[in-house]
Amino acid sequence: MNSLGTQYKALVIGSNGAIGSAFLTAFKNDLNCSLVASLSRTTVPDFSLESETSISDSANFLALNAPFHVIVDATGALIIDGHGPEKQLARLDPIQLSRAFQINTIGPALLIKHFVPLLDSANRAIYAKLSARVGSISDNKKGGWYGYRSSKAALNMMLQTAAIECNRSNPNLVFAALQPGTVASKLSAKFVSPEHCLPAVEAVQGLMSALDGLVAKSGAYFIDYRGQPIDW
Ligand SMILES: NC(=O)c1ccc[n+]([C@@H]2O[C@H](COP(=O)([O-])OP(=O)(O)OC[C@H]3O[C@@H](n4cnc5c(N)ncnc54)[C@H](OP(=O)(O)O)[C@@H]3O)[C@@H](O)[C@H]2O)c1
């Protein structure tokens, strides 16, 4: 990335997923990146989106490497506890719905709460969160996938609201909700075959160059891997 200077520090959360690991590799290969830290369910320390204590403990640990200039949260889930996305109202289940919100909205919001303070407050910095185009209300022409769609739409609102609040104290901060395209991963495997998917490396290359061009503002961006804006 060029917009963060020649000695920027990056953190990837969810670094063992398909998209998270591609971000990790891209930062490692970027000569401008002086340090890349990672956090996942398999790092030491590890964390879970379902435990705020694990999130705050890992933030305290990673504060040793702060300030970061870019944080990417690449966590998320579509099939949770063995339950896939609901196609009909009749399939709605309160526990499964609340699990979708726990993983895709509440956990990521707690990551914002504990990790945004680790971003550089004096220079350009980016908080990027993998969202999904299906979280766009205006783009929803097909229906279905109630829990995943709704939890991503709520995530987008968390990002927009956090962006407005954080811009007051740090006008250099960029917040972005990212649509990576359809990428082969554990998350997408049951729904699309790999030959119809974008390689994670390409998706991440596109997302990094899109992030590079974003100007800090009071509000979040919702963009895809080609840098195209998506209506909320
Ligand atoms: N792939 C696509 O086509 C696509 C399209 C649109 C949006 N996205 C979004 O992109 C993001 C990354 O997806 P992906 O395709 O890379 O999927 P993935 O390979 O399954 O990665 C998902 C990541 O989330 C982590 N995670 C899930 N539940 C967690 C929990 N309770 N606590 C901590 N970490 C947890 C996983 O950790 P473990 O590896 O330990 O399970 C993994 O690192 C997601 O937000 C997804 O919604 C993907």
How would you describe what is shown here?
With 232 residues, this protein is of the alpha/beta class. It has helices at 18-29, 52-62, 94-115, 146-169, 200-212; strands at 8-13, 33-39, 70-73, 125-130, 173-179, 221-224. It has a single domain (8-224), classed as NAD(P)-binding Rossmann-like Domain (Rossmann fold), CATH 3.40.50. Strands 2-1-3-4-5-6 form a six-stranded parallel sheet, with helices on both faces. The mean pLDDT is 97. NADP nicotinamide-adenine-dinucleotide phosphate (NAP) binds next to α1.
The percentage helix is 25-40%
CATH topology: Rossmann fold
Distance between the termini: 26 Å
Radius of gyration in whole Å, from Cα?
17 Å
Total helix count? 5
Secondary-structure class? alpha/beta
Catalogue the ligands: NADP nicotinamide-adenine-dinucleotide phosphate
CATH class designation: Alpha Beta
Biggest sheet layout: 6 strands, parallel
Mean pLDDT: 97
Question: In percent, how much strand structure appears in the residues?
Answer: 5-15%
- CATH level-four homologous superfamily name: NAD(P)-binding Rossmann-like Domain
The overall number of domains is: 1
